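In this section we walk through a basic example: taking a raw amino acid sequence and producing a predicted 3D structure, encoded as C-alpha coordinates. The instruction is simple. Fold the sequence below.
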Amino acid sequence: MVVDSELTLPQLRSLDPQTLSSDDANPVIVRWGDVPERLSEELPIAPITRWGESCLLRIPDAGNYLVTANSVTIEKHNHASLDDVEAYLLGTVLATVAHLRGLVPLHVSAVLSPMGAIAFTGESGAGKSTMAAHIHHKTGWPLISDDVSALYVTETGVALESGVLTVKLWKDALASLDRSSEGLKRDAERMDKFHAIDAEKFVVGRYPLKSLVFLQWGDEDCVTAITGRQALEIAIASVYRPELVNLCRNRERVVANAIALARSVDVKKVTRRKGVPVTEGILNSLKAVDFTDVISPDAKADA
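The resulting C-alpha coordinate sequence is shown next.
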Protein backbone atom coordinates (compact mmCIF):
# COMPACT_ATOMS: atom_id res chain seq x y z
CA MET A 1 0.00 0.00 0.00
CA VAL A 2 0.99 3.60 -0.59
CA VAL A 3 0.20 5.96 2.29
CA ASP A 4 -0.50 9.69 1.87
CA SER A 5 -0.14 10.93 5.44
CA GLU A 6 -0.25 14.17 7.42
CA LEU A 7 2.00 12.39 9.93
CA THR A 8 5.69 12.32 8.97
CA LEU A 9 6.10 8.53 9.49
CA PRO A 10 9.87 8.02 9.12
CA GLN A 11 9.17 4.27 9.53
CA LEU A 12 8.01 4.20 5.88
CA ARG A 13 10.12 4.75 2.80
CA SER A 14 9.38 8.05 1.04
CA LEU A 15 8.21 7.86 -2.57
CA ASP A 16 8.47 10.36 -5.40
CA PRO A 17 4.88 10.90 -6.63
CA GLN A 18 6.16 10.95 -10.22
CA THR A 19 7.44 7.37 -9.87
CA LEU A 20 4.14 5.87 -8.72
CA SER A 21 2.64 3.20 -10.96
CA SER A 22 -1.01 2.57 -11.78
CA ASP A 23 -1.04 0.01 -8.96
CA ASP A 24 -0.29 2.84 -6.52
CA ALA A 25 -3.07 5.11 -7.75
CA ASN A 26 -5.29 4.45 -4.74
CA PRO A 27 -3.29 5.54 -1.67
CA VAL A 28 -4.48 5.32 1.92
CA ILE A 29 -5.21 8.88 3.04
CA VAL A 30 -4.16 9.41 6.69
CA ARG A 31 -5.38 12.62 8.33
CA TRP A 32 -6.06 14.17 11.73
CA GLY A 33 -9.75 14.82 12.40
CA ASP A 34 -12.81 14.26 14.56
CA VAL A 35 -13.75 10.63 15.16
CA PRO A 36 -17.12 9.52 16.59
CA GLU A 37 -17.22 7.70 19.90
CA ARG A 38 -19.40 5.02 18.35
CA LEU A 39 -20.33 3.96 14.83
CA SER A 40 -23.89 2.99 15.73
CA GLU A 41 -26.09 3.01 18.79
CA GLU A 42 -26.66 -0.70 18.12
CA LEU A 43 -23.00 -1.63 18.52
CA PRO A 44 -21.44 -2.26 21.91
CA ILE A 45 -18.34 -0.35 22.95
CA ALA A 46 -15.35 -2.51 22.01
CA PRO A 47 -11.74 -1.92 20.95
CA ILE A 48 -12.64 -2.56 17.28
CA THR A 49 -16.13 -2.30 15.80
CA ARG A 50 -17.50 -2.11 12.25
CA TRP A 51 -20.53 -0.48 10.74
CA GLY A 52 -21.02 -0.51 7.00
CA GLU A 53 -17.68 0.11 5.31
CA SER A 54 -16.02 1.74 8.35
CA CYS A 55 -14.15 0.33 11.33
CA LEU A 56 -13.60 2.20 14.59
CA LEU A 57 -10.55 1.42 16.73
CA ARG A 58 -10.41 2.82 20.27
CA ILE A 59 -6.88 2.69 21.68
CA PRO A 60 -6.75 4.10 25.26
CA ASP A 61 -3.00 4.79 25.03
CA ALA A 62 -3.17 6.55 21.66
CA GLY A 63 -6.51 7.73 20.30
CA ASN A 64 -9.48 6.80 18.16
CA TYR A 65 -9.02 5.74 14.53
CA LEU A 66 -11.82 5.75 11.94
CA VAL A 67 -10.75 3.35 9.21
CA THR A 68 -12.01 2.54 5.71
CA ALA A 69 -10.34 0.76 2.80
CA ASN A 70 -9.07 4.12 1.55
CA SER A 71 -8.62 6.36 4.59
CA VAL A 72 -7.65 6.66 8.24
CA THR A 73 -8.86 9.54 10.40
CA ILE A 74 -7.08 9.94 13.74
CA GLU A 75 -8.27 11.75 16.85
CA LYS A 76 -5.38 11.73 19.30
CA HIS A 77 -5.96 11.53 23.05
CA ASN A 78 -4.53 14.53 24.90
CA HIS A 79 -2.25 12.37 27.08
CA ALA A 80 -0.94 10.25 24.21
CA SER A 81 2.46 10.66 22.55
CA LEU A 82 2.95 10.85 18.80
CA ASP A 83 5.15 7.74 19.05
CA ASP A 84 2.24 5.73 20.43
CA VAL A 85 -0.17 7.12 17.82
CA GLU A 86 2.24 6.13 15.04
CA ALA A 87 2.93 2.69 16.52
CA TYR A 88 -0.74 1.68 16.48
CA LEU A 89 -1.26 3.30 13.06
CA LEU A 90 1.56 1.27 11.50
CA GLY A 91 0.42 -1.96 13.15
CA THR A 92 -3.23 -2.70 13.87
CA VAL A 93 -4.68 0.24 11.95
CA LEU A 94 -2.96 -0.34 8.61
CA ALA A 95 -3.53 -4.09 9.04
CA THR A 96 -7.25 -3.26 9.26
CA VAL A 97 -6.95 -1.29 6.02
CA ALA A 98 -5.20 -4.27 4.43
CA HIS A 99 -7.98 -6.65 5.45
CA LEU A 100 -10.63 -4.22 4.19
CA ARG A 101 -8.80 -4.14 0.84
CA GLY A 102 -8.75 -7.92 0.62
CA LEU A 103 -5.03 -8.22 1.31
CA VAL A 104 -3.57 -10.85 3.66
CA PRO A 105 -1.19 -9.37 6.27
CA LEU A 106 1.05 -11.85 8.09
CA HIS A 107 2.57 -11.32 11.55
CA VAL A 108 6.14 -12.31 10.69
CA SER A 109 9.76 -11.24 10.84
CA ALA A 110 11.43 -12.09 7.56
CA VAL A 111 14.85 -11.99 5.89
CA LEU A 112 15.80 -12.24 2.24
CA SER A 113 18.22 -15.16 1.77
CA PRO A 114 19.81 -16.36 -1.47
CA MET A 115 17.09 -19.03 -1.49
CA GLY A 116 14.27 -16.50 -1.12
CA ALA A 117 12.33 -15.07 1.80
CA ILE A 118 12.50 -16.86 5.15
CA ALA A 119 9.73 -15.80 7.54
CA PHE A 120 9.49 -16.47 11.27
CA THR A 121 6.14 -16.60 12.99
CA GLY A 122 4.81 -17.56 16.42
CA GLU A 123 3.09 -16.08 19.42
CA SER A 124 4.21 -12.79 20.94
CA GLY A 125 7.57 -13.29 22.66
CA ALA A 126 8.50 -16.39 20.64
CA GLY A 127 11.61 -14.69 19.26
CA LYS A 128 10.61 -13.74 15.71
CA SER A 129 12.41 -10.41 15.69
CA THR A 130 15.44 -11.75 17.55
CA MET A 131 15.87 -14.60 15.08
CA ALA A 132 15.65 -12.32 12.04
CA ALA A 133 17.97 -9.72 13.59
CA HIS A 134 20.64 -12.32 14.38
CA ILE A 135 20.47 -13.81 10.90
CA HIS A 136 20.90 -10.33 9.43
CA HIS A 137 23.78 -9.65 11.82
CA LYS A 138 25.54 -12.91 10.91
CA THR A 139 24.95 -13.00 7.16
CA GLY A 140 24.15 -9.49 6.01
CA TRP A 141 20.93 -10.80 4.47
CA PRO A 142 18.52 -7.84 4.40
CA LEU A 143 15.30 -7.74 6.39
CA ILE A 144 11.97 -7.81 4.58
CA SER A 145 9.72 -7.19 7.56
CA ASP A 146 9.81 -7.20 11.34
CA ASP A 147 6.10 -7.12 12.10
CA VAL A 148 3.57 -7.06 9.26
CA SER A 149 4.13 -8.33 5.71
CA ALA A 150 1.47 -8.86 3.06
CA LEU A 151 1.18 -12.31 1.46
CA TYR A 152 0.50 -12.58 -2.27
CA VAL A 153 -0.25 -15.55 -4.51
CA THR A 154 1.83 -15.45 -7.70
CA GLU A 155 2.08 -17.65 -10.80
CA THR A 156 5.01 -19.51 -9.26
CA GLY A 157 3.92 -19.73 -5.61
CA VAL A 158 3.53 -17.13 -2.89
CA ALA A 159 5.47 -13.97 -2.10
CA LEU A 160 5.98 -11.53 0.77
CA GLU A 161 5.73 -7.76 0.43
CA SER A 162 8.16 -5.69 2.50
CA GLY A 163 6.89 -3.89 5.60
CA VAL A 164 7.67 -1.04 7.99
CA LEU A 165 11.38 -0.15 8.26
CA THR A 166 11.52 -0.71 12.02
CA VAL A 167 13.14 -3.44 14.12
CA LYS A 168 11.54 -4.35 17.47
CA LEU A 169 13.81 -6.07 19.98
CA TRP A 170 13.77 -6.97 23.66
CA LYS A 171 16.52 -5.51 25.82
CA ASP A 172 18.37 -8.84 26.15
CA ALA A 173 18.24 -9.33 22.37
CA LEU A 174 19.77 -5.88 21.87
CA ALA A 175 22.52 -6.80 24.32
CA SER A 176 23.24 -10.02 22.44
CA LEU A 177 23.78 -7.89 19.33
CA ASP A 178 26.07 -5.49 21.26
CA ARG A 179 23.52 -2.75 20.79
CA SER A 180 22.33 -0.26 23.41
CA SER A 181 18.69 0.70 23.93
CA GLU A 182 19.74 4.31 24.46
CA GLY A 183 17.90 6.63 22.09
CA LEU A 184 15.47 3.95 20.93
CA LYS A 185 11.70 4.22 21.30
CA ARG A 186 10.01 2.05 23.92
CA ASP A 187 7.19 -0.19 22.79
CA ALA A 188 3.75 1.19 23.60
CA GLU A 189 2.63 -2.05 25.30
CA ARG A 190 5.88 -3.72 26.42
CA MET A 191 8.25 -1.53 28.39
CA ASP A 192 11.26 -3.82 27.94
CA LYS A 193 10.99 -3.83 24.13
CA PHE A 194 12.42 -1.13 21.89
CA HIS A 195 11.90 0.13 18.34
CA ALA A 196 14.77 1.13 16.03
CA ILE A 197 14.18 2.69 12.61
CA ASP A 198 16.80 0.84 10.54
CA ALA A 199 15.95 1.62 6.92
CA GLU A 200 19.39 0.59 5.69
CA LYS A 201 18.82 -2.99 6.89
CA PHE A 202 15.66 -3.49 4.78
CA VAL A 203 14.83 -4.24 1.18
CA VAL A 204 11.63 -2.95 -0.40
CA GLY A 205 9.59 -5.03 -2.81
CA ARG A 206 7.92 -8.41 -3.21
CA TYR A 207 9.94 -11.61 -2.80
CA PRO A 208 9.19 -15.35 -3.24
CA LEU A 209 8.54 -17.01 0.12
CA LYS A 210 10.84 -20.00 0.54
CA SER A 211 10.26 -21.02 4.17
CA LEU A 212 7.87 -20.31 7.04
CA VAL A 213 9.23 -21.20 10.48
CA PHE A 214 6.91 -21.37 13.50
CA LEU A 215 8.82 -20.63 16.72
CA GLN A 216 7.72 -21.88 20.12
CA TRP A 217 9.21 -22.50 23.58
CA GLY A 218 9.52 -26.00 25.01
CA ASP A 219 11.58 -28.40 27.12
CA GLU A 220 14.09 -29.30 24.40
CA ASP A 221 15.53 -28.00 21.15
CA CYS A 222 13.96 -29.73 18.17
CA VAL A 223 12.64 -29.08 14.68
CA THR A 224 9.65 -30.68 12.97
CA ALA A 225 8.75 -30.57 9.29
CA ILE A 226 5.11 -29.58 8.91
CA THR A 227 2.85 -30.51 5.99
CA GLY A 228 -0.82 -30.80 5.11
CA ARG A 229 -3.47 -29.59 7.53
CA GLN A 230 -0.93 -28.57 10.18
CA ALA A 231 0.90 -26.38 7.66
CA LEU A 232 -2.42 -24.76 6.76
CA GLU A 233 -3.17 -24.15 10.44
CA ILE A 234 0.22 -22.47 10.94
CA ALA A 235 -0.35 -20.33 7.85
CA ILE A 236 -3.74 -19.17 9.14
CA ALA A 237 -2.35 -18.61 12.64
CA SER A 238 0.31 -16.35 11.09
CA VAL A 239 -2.30 -13.86 9.87
CA TYR A 240 -1.97 -10.51 11.62
CA ARG A 241 -4.86 -9.85 14.00
CA PRO A 242 -7.01 -12.92 13.17
CA GLU A 243 -10.02 -11.23 14.76
CA LEU A 244 -10.01 -8.79 11.84
CA VAL A 245 -10.62 -11.54 9.27
CA ASN A 246 -14.34 -11.89 9.94
CA LEU A 247 -14.80 -8.26 10.99
CA CYS A 248 -13.42 -7.09 7.64
CA ARG A 249 -15.07 -9.92 5.65
CA ASN A 250 -11.75 -11.19 4.39
CA ARG A 251 -12.06 -14.90 5.17
CA GLU A 252 -12.19 -16.11 1.56
CA ARG A 253 -8.92 -14.41 0.55
CA VAL A 254 -7.16 -15.41 3.78
CA VAL A 255 -8.08 -19.08 3.37
CA ALA A 256 -7.11 -19.12 -0.33
CA ASN A 257 -3.71 -17.55 0.34
CA ALA A 258 -3.09 -19.81 3.35
CA ILE A 259 -3.82 -22.90 1.26
CA ALA A 260 -1.40 -21.68 -1.42
CA LEU A 261 1.27 -21.11 1.24
CA ALA A 262 0.79 -24.56 2.81
CA ARG A 263 1.12 -26.22 -0.60
CA SER A 264 4.16 -24.35 -1.93
CA VAL A 265 6.30 -23.29 1.07
CA ASP A 266 8.63 -25.30 3.30
CA VAL A 267 6.97 -25.07 6.74
CA LYS A 268 8.83 -25.99 9.92
CA LYS A 269 8.15 -25.85 13.65
CA VAL A 270 11.15 -25.01 15.84
CA THR A 271 10.98 -25.64 19.58
CA ARG A 272 13.57 -23.90 21.76
CA ARG A 273 14.49 -24.04 25.45
CA LYS A 274 14.09 -20.96 27.59
CA GLY A 275 17.05 -19.93 29.72
CA VAL A 276 19.61 -20.60 27.00
CA PRO A 277 21.75 -17.54 26.13
CA VAL A 278 20.26 -15.72 23.15
CA THR A 279 23.23 -16.22 20.82
CA GLU A 280 23.53 -19.94 21.61
CA GLY A 281 19.80 -20.50 21.17
CA ILE A 282 19.78 -18.72 17.80
CA LEU A 283 22.75 -20.76 16.55
CA ASN A 284 21.09 -24.02 17.61
CA SER A 285 17.91 -23.00 15.80
CA LEU A 286 19.78 -22.11 12.61
CA LYS A 287 21.46 -25.51 12.61
CA ALA A 288 18.13 -27.21 13.25
CA VAL A 289 16.42 -25.64 10.23
CA ASP A 290 19.41 -26.23 7.92
CA PHE A 291 20.06 -22.56 7.23
CA THR A 292 23.72 -22.76 8.21
CA ASP A 293 24.60 -24.58 4.98
CA VAL A 294 23.91 -21.37 3.07
CA ILE A 295 25.55 -19.09 5.65
CA SER A 296 29.17 -18.52 4.77
CA PRO A 297 31.46 -19.06 7.78
CA ASP A 298 33.25 -15.84 6.95
CA ALA A 299 30.09 -13.89 6.19
CA LYS A 300 30.55 -10.28 7.06
CA ALA A 301 28.62 -9.37 10.18
CA ASP A 302 26.43 -6.32 9.86
CA ALA A 303 25.88 -4.64 13.23
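Looking at the output, two observations stand out. Helices lie at 82-100, 128-139, 171-176, 228-237, 243-247, 251-264, 278-288. The first strand starts at residue 3 and ends at 5. In the next section we compare this with other chains.
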